[in-house]
Automatic annotation (TrEMBL):
Binds 2 [4Fe-4S] clusters per subunit. One cluster is coordinated with 3 cysteines and an exchangeable S-adenosyl-L-methionine. It is found in: Cytoplasm. This is Lipoyl synthase. It comes from Algoriphagus taiwanensis. [4Fe-4S] cluster 2 binds at residues 72, 76, 79. It catalyses: [[Fe-S] cluster scaffold protein carrying a second [4Fe-4S](2+) cluster] + N(6)-octanoyl-L-lysyl-[protein] + 2 oxidized [2Fe-2S]-[ferredoxin] + 2 S-adenosyl-L-methionine + 4 H(+) = [[Fe-S] cluster scaffold protein] + N(6)-[(R)-dihydrolipoyl]-L-lysyl-[protein] + 4 Fe(3+) + 2 hydrogen sulfide + 2 5'-deoxyadenosine + 2 L-methionine + 2 reduced [2Fe-2S]-[ferredoxin]. The gene is lipA.
């Protein structure tokens, strides 16, 4: 039986606290990125995931590109990305993404994807080609790849991470107890093993966890210890925000002071870098994670 967090009627109706307010995306650089994304028919997790930092990041001339389409084979209860049967497999996508990154002139590019469980290689070849072509067109650009759960297909994992990217991220998303509720098609221990194998391959490793889903402090500490034990270098912690009424409700709005405490605690427990704050998302300040 899944243990659900207790959420009061009052909690579900209350407004977001002031610290979760964000600015609307505007400005010259934002418009430039918007135009490039549209011209090259690209998907960005910034849009598909309703990221609260889209205005800030796009305003700085950066974006996180989502490859392999914008329909996911998973049905995670927290995620705003569309779920269904994907019909997009575009072998020209790596070229378009690489050219867009070159045109944008970004110093650090983040690439992610939906889950493609129906593909034998989980989309690994598209991943590999995207990184390789980006490096060919923009050799000075550093790359982080935020890769999905490969369901134990380690051959697919190694193909995904051998293109030359500097950082490989795989998000745990939540603490172990809440996995069946938050990530029903994933396994906590399997995601830890994926991080462990990525580290053993020689890559800088990174993961992200959402807070406010009903987790306890002790469970967050346990997750930190598990990550350190399995070779994770970088951890991002951010507030979960409910995308629509169909998604899992917010159990708690975590105060910024507690986020600051978690950052100190994570570093104390052995993580090399912790990005922690209410509006932090996996790709937020990603350029700072290359040389930690």
């Amino acid at each position: 039986m899944i243990e659900l967090p207790v959420i009061s009627e009052e909690a579900t109706k209350r407004k977001k606290p002031d610290w979760l307010r964000v600015k609307l995306p505007v400005g010259k650089e934002y418009a430039k990125v918007r135009k490039l994304v549209d011209q090259h028919k690209l998907h960005t997790i910034c849009e598909s995931g309703n990221c609260p930092n889209m205005g800030e990041c796009w305003g700085a001339g950066t974006a996180t590109f989502m490859i392999l389409g914008n329909v996911c084979t998973r049905s995670c209860s927290f995620c705003a990305v569309a779920t269904g049967r994907p019909n997009e497999y575009d072998t020209d996508e790596p070229r378009r993404v690489a050219e867009a990154i070159q045109l944008m002139g970004v110093k650090h590019a983040v690439i992610t994807s939906v889950n493609r469980d129906e593909l034998k290689d989980r989309g690994a070849e598209i991943w590999y080609q995207t990184v390789v072509l980006t490096k060919e067109l923009s050799p000075a650009t550093t790359i982080e790849t935020l890769i999905p759960d490969v369901k134990g297909n380690w051959d697919a994992l190694y193909r995904m991470i051998e293109g030359g990217q500097e950082v490989v991220s795989h998000n745990m998303e939540t603490v172990g107890r809440l996995y069946r509720m938050v990530r029903p098609q994933a396994k906590y221990d399997r995601s830890l093993e994926q991080i462990k194998l990525t580290k053993a391959y020689g890559k800088r490793t990174k993961t992200g966890i959402m807070l406010g889903l009903g987790e306890t402090k002790e469970e967050v500490y346990k997750a930190m210890d598990d990550l350190v034990e399995n070779g994770c270098d970088i951890l991002t912690l951010g507030q979960y925000l409910q995308p629509t009424k169909r998604h899992i409700e917010v159990a708690e709005f975590i105060h910024p002071d507690l986020f600051a405490h978690y950052k100190e605690e994570g570093l104390r427990r052995g993580l090399k870098y912790v990005e922690s704050g209410p509006l932090v998302r996996s790709s937020y300040h990603a350029e700072r994670h290359v040389h930690v």
